[in-house]
Amino acid sequence: MAADGFIRQQFVQRLYVEHHGWLNGWLRRHLQCSQRAADLAQDTFVRVLTREPQNLSAIREPRAYLHTIAKGLLINHWRRRQIEQAYLDALALQPEPLATSPEEQALIVETLLQIDAMLDRLPHKVRRAFLMSQLQGMTYAAIAAELEVSERMVKKYMAQAMLHCLMLLDDDA
């Protein structure tokens, strides 16, 4: 077992030495920020370190493997920035007494990210029905017409979305 750990450590070390510069450069070109690129490159190698040992031995194209991990981290980074910016834009429209502390803002952004991840796991029509109902205030009949489904189907979509919301609340408890 100790020999496996040593072999694994050497593999990851070699992967890091041989490909870190390339990965960091790739991320820097996409982010236009050397510090954030360095952070995401490190996060990529942390992900590699946490993979199952048998998965590492199957790597035939190290750059493609690292690219796949880094691209997922990059997408998460952009999604988080988009959600944070939308929240900050909405917050800027609020009167001064309603402004929140930085701690409250961080908690709100984290909650918004959880909601976004939950909505992302919903099937497309379920997500659309839920958002039309909750954000646009549309009736089930209007949603049904928009999605070209029956009102009964919209009710099923809403029930499915609500169940996911409850599961999110249950996870926080």
UniProtKB/TrEMBL annotation:
GO terms for biological process: DNA-templated transcription initiation. InterPro entries: RNA_pol_sigma-70-like, RNA_pol_sigma-70_dom, RNA_pol_sigma70_r2, RNA_pol_sigma70_r4_t2, RNA_pol_sigma_r2, RNA_pol_sigma_r3/r4-like, WH-like_DNA-bd_sf. Transmembrane segments: none annotated. Residues 15-82 form the RNA polymerase sigma-70 region domain. The keyword Transcription applies. Belongs to the sigma-70 factor family. ECF subfamily. Residues 113-165 form the RNA polymerase sigma factor 70 region 4 type domain. One of its GO terms (molecular function) is sigma factor activity. This is RNA polymerase subunit sigma. The lineage of its organism: Bacteria, Pseudomonadati, Pseudomonadota, Gammaproteobacteria, Pseudomonadales. Keywords: Sigma factor, Transcription, Transcription regulation.
